Amino acid sequence: MALKIKDLRIYYQTLRGDVKAVDGISFQVKDGEIMGLAGESGCGKSTLSNALILLKPPMKYISGEVFLNDKKLPIDNYEAMRANRFRGVSIIPQYAMNALNPIRKLKQIISDLLEHHGESFVKMRDMIEERLKLVELDEKVLDLYPIELSGGMNQRMVMVISTLLNPSLLLADEITSALDVSSQKAVSKMIVEFRDRKIVRSVIFVTHDISILYQVADSIMIMYTGKQVERAPTETIVKNPLHPYTKLLISSLPEVGIKYSQAPLKGIPGRPPELLNPPEGCRFKDRCPVASEKCDEEPPLVEIEPGHQVACWKVGAIDD
Amino acid sequence: MIELKDITKVYSLGAFGKRKLTAVDNVSFSIGEGKIISLIGESGSGKTTIGKMMLKLIPITKGQILFQGKDLSLFKGEKLKEYYRYVQGVFQDPFSSFNPIFKADRIFELVKSEFFPELTGREWQIHVLDALESVGLNPKTVLNKFPHQLSGGQLQRMLIARALLLDTKFLVADEIISMLDASTRIDVLNILAELKKGGLSILFITHDLSLGYYISDESIILYRGSVMEAGKTEKVFSTPLHPYTRMLLDAVPRIDRKWTTFETPERKAVGSDTIGMCKYYDRCPLATKECEAQGLIKVEEDHHVACWRWNDV
């Protein structure tokens, strides 16, 4: 197992109390697996991925363990994590354009970073050029400033930088959301390519766009208000979702071929509860069309079939 | 109702505006009453520039925009204010449309003091409640709140409600969905479709083809400031004729079909050799030396394409 997480809890410290952004999450990512992580905003998906690489206040580690390649990852220790960042775990942040220092040339940015990790830019130059070719960038870009590249090119540049030291786990946080369709496709291709060439061992692909995940991910985990609601192979999540939330989320996706005048779609009514004092029991019960009294008790995450886990009392009992 | 005639917009860049960038190049189309037209294109295709020109937020370099037969560039002062009574815009980022220091419902007050100073507070309140009702908001949950206390979807719907307070006949909706969550975006789309039934015309600007297909009557595919393909939405999407439209449609992530390949043609910097050529020349897999700049060719009723080889590519 490349990544194994056990009962992870990450809260945000605020003056009004703890915001329970990640509340008891356990899952595993296999070697060579691209796991998609989807959910509405505020469901804790970015918190989860940030906690794996840089856990700093107001984020607060409560409990849980993270194992990367069977070694414990000291995510609660800022200093001890330093050795693991970039080599063990690496991240492609959401807004790549803002991730690059605007007053340094790209090669200066890269060499600063490599020196910091005890590597040399000159020695790695060949490899960097090879990687640039992989993402279809010319080596001349190294002599440019970030503002001279387009958003999509910057995004790809950051992807190259993030994976330079062949991290075993790559976190991709909403990397496609600011791009248009053709760049989205190009960026997704690169993620798959990185995995196929064993540059990275496994990927967590965070996004709210399930249709992108269907194209690239091997399995998908759906989160809602800090809890895991469903985890299954991609095909199963899209074609045969079991949790009512997953069903609603997927049925609200507009697609080419669906028109308002013929078949209007419906959104999910209501909005997620506050995570400061989340409701007892199932956190989706107030918006759920099939909720009952049983839902006041928290549903456990059960394995319905191999590789397919759902947290809902009603699973098996309902069909649309 | 609103008509664009050979609109061109050239931005001046660099020191003293030496560098010129043609953002919109000879675009013409018209929008009838109660129609939704989607303007689809990648980033940098000039979609937002067209929207801004129609709202008279930036001047037009060349060409004319006619609103109910009258030239937009002649509207000044009182007349321009009159224009905004009928034409309104809603933009991408709902959070930056609000002033975080004031309560969110201040946007309604500003409309009142600008356009309806003669109404009493009570009469105005009824108007506001009506408008909120029509966008599906509960007045209790949104009035008297600060912007940060509301969600993106709620703020976006408040902005639509604000536009409705006037006698709006035409709405420019510039990427209004892209910042919203998957679960709420469809609600906002449905509101637009409902308003259309009441006679509102909408220019729906988006880079998401599925959203454009879902809502619009007609679609315009834009690339580097030129129209590549235009026509009835069903025709453009079911029988795409331009290579660019096909590439876009292939790149849309779908949940009923996986991408067969990951290949997309790369966008290159514009070189001198492409001047006078088709805008899509450098990326088009089928381009030949004869692919010169193209105007729109009428293929059938309500379907135009800017590719001279549309029937053999």
Order of helices and strands of chain B: EEEHEEHEHHHHHEHEHEEHHEE
Strand content of chain A: 15-25%
- Strands of chain B, total number: 12
Total count of strands of chain A? 12
Biggest β-sheet: strands ordered side by side in the sheet of chain B: 6-7-8-3-9-10-12-11
* Residue runs with pLDDT of under 50 for 5 or more positions of chain A: none
What would you note in describing this structure?
- The complex is a heterodimer of chains A (320) and B (313).
- Chain A has helices at residues 45-51, 78-81, 96-99, 106-116, 121-134, 151-162, 181-196, 210-216, 234-239, 244-251; strands at 3-14, 17-29, 34-38, 59-68, 71-72, 89-92, 169-173, 202-206, 219-224, 227-233, 302-305, 308-310.
- The radius of gyration of chain A is 20 Å and the shape is globular.
- Chain A has ten helices and twelve strands.
- In chain A, β4 and β5 (71-72) form a beta hairpin.
- By secondary structure, chain A is an alpha/beta fold.
- In chain A, strands 6-7-8-3-9-10-12-11 form an eight-stranded mixed sheet, sandwiched between helices.
- Chain A has a domain at 1-83 and 204-254 and 270-320: P-loop containing nucleotide triphosphate hydrolases (Rossmann fold, 3-Layer(aba) Sandwich), CATH 3.40.50.
- Chain B is α/β, with parallel strands linked by helices and 313 residues long.
- Chain B has one domain (2-239): P-loop containing nucleotide triphosphate hydrolases (Rossmann fold, 3-Layer(aba) Sandwich), CATH 3.40.50.300.
- Chain B is 33% helix and 23% strand.
- Chain B starts with a strand and ends in an 8-residue tail after the last strand.
- The mean pLDDT of chain B is 86.
- Chain A binds chain B through residues 40-41, 136, 150-151, 179-186, 188-189, 192-193, 208-212, 214-215, 238, 248-250, 252-261, 264-268, 271, and chain B through 41-44, 151-152, 181-187, 189-190, 193, 207-211, 213-215, 233-234, 237, 247-249, 251-256, 258-259, 262-267.
